[in-house]
Amino acid sequence: MSGGNGRRRLTRRASAGNGTALFRSAGALKRLASSAGEVPLDRISTRGRLAWLNSAGSRIGTTLDLERTAQELAEFTVPGFADGAAVDILESVLRGDEGSRWTGTGVPPMRAIALCAVDELSTLEATPVGETFVRSEEAHETLLHRYCLRQGRPVLVSRMGDADYLRVAPTESAAETMRSTGVHSYLAVPLIARGLLLGSADFVRGRGTPPFSSTDLALAEHLASQAAVYIDNARLYGRERERVVSLQRTLLPRATPVTPGLRVHAEYAPSTAHHGVGGDWYDVMALPGGRTALMVGDVMGHGLPAAATMGRLRAVARTLMTLDMAPERVLARLDLATRDLEDEQVATFLCAVFDPADATYTLASAGHLPPLLLDGDGGAEFVDVPVGAPLGAGVIPYDPIRLKVPEGGRLVLYSDGLVKSRRADLDHQLERLRAAARGLTPEALERGGLLERAPADAPRFDEAVLLGATTTLGTPDELREWELPREGRAASVARRLVTDQLTEWELTELADVCELVVSELVGNALRYGNGPGRLRLLRGERLVVEVSDTGPDLPQIQHADLSDEGGRGLQLINMLCRRWGTCRTEVGKVVWAEQNLPS
Asked: Hey, what domains does the chain have and what are their CATH numbers?
């Protein structure tokens, strides 16, 4: 066993009728006689040994978890085969490298994975489970290193003499502990699967048990060969799952943008099932005019195809939201994009656009679960969003709703992995989720409180995403809105309002450009948009000026000849501003332009 102190110990005792008790010594059998009756020694037969070995298939490798599989191997051999067992895996194998026989000097880095021992050997010095141990080249070479790790051969020391303790134990103190606790026989076998060395398993026997024999060695080799395949399967699955989860995490946003009037918290919980990694995603986007888009989607299916489809749909959704389209129009376009995919995937999607001017959300759903609204006073209700067909079904249009959220209120968007269960129907799970959300503070929500209270099965067999948005202020100090007159003096009114506000914000150096921009936008609204509507000025990461009107035509930059009197306004805006754009509304359109703030 590997050196060190404090390794986790697990004690198991034989019970009446346990087939593994066939391998205990006569002394051990006599100790069991008081409760189970004396077992004749002639029952320790070849048939019994083969039956014990055959039962390993149902008790080792019950999951695709590497640590659990190694622990099952250790527990299976104690106390029926050995009084103590330890399983160590090469660190290079756990990192994803292919195992191979060790040819270097010293002992390769290994990680203690599993340990099991009877009470009498509970004081053996060992490395704590989960820790990596490395021995220096100056330390004496153990039999485990020389044969198991370098040559891939087993080690058997039937009766240990004084010199053998130092050949087996990694340190002198560990050798003395083995001697004092009565360990007298040692056996170590390499774990080799598909020609690859994964690690080793070593066993010891103490007082009252016979020494290991050549028959025990053959049994241990067969058992190690069988268990190594299970451990390698778990290793390969863990490596592939880690790659899929890493791919999915790279497709999700790494940080949420700063949004006026809103505090956003997002979480992603991968599935613990071997098939659970799939296509759940979320996104948060800052839109012109201080608005924020919150999106949650779920691609049907699991594995790499679902994750790849998720990445493509998220890219399309971000592109559409960059155009500042209404949520229902985004869903309609996404449905067309989903139908164009070669693998004919189907996905649910929920989009919510928050406007800090009036603390309202515009929501549209494509077959997604309803969002949860927390009112800030301990109440929680589901939002009645019209549920359209999932993306890819080809059933459009989608119907939006407008939702007013009080100050301190929270809107929670999530995927079905948060409530999915094999034992309860969806309505029951949703009611449990609503009950779990009652009284949840914003701080608890941001600490993952709702994810912990979610009624999904444990372990979670489907991944889940959660997006929580808390309204911080009804109207942020950085946002101003004015209604403009629908007449010729609208431009002068707009210039005065903008100049006064920039003076209040101590941004007078931006006033000249901002006056020119607002004059052009208001002039275009008078000329082509039936007069201006509202003027909005937002100071966030950048300065944004926005003018709305009821005209149906979106402005475009025109090519103006030298003799033309007009057509250069948008060209000037394009040169003087960081960017500009337009978006349609229910009654017309909005034209906006962005300027960088002074450093």
From this structure: 19-241 (3.30.450.40), 252-471 (3.60.40.10), 479-596 (3.30.565.10)
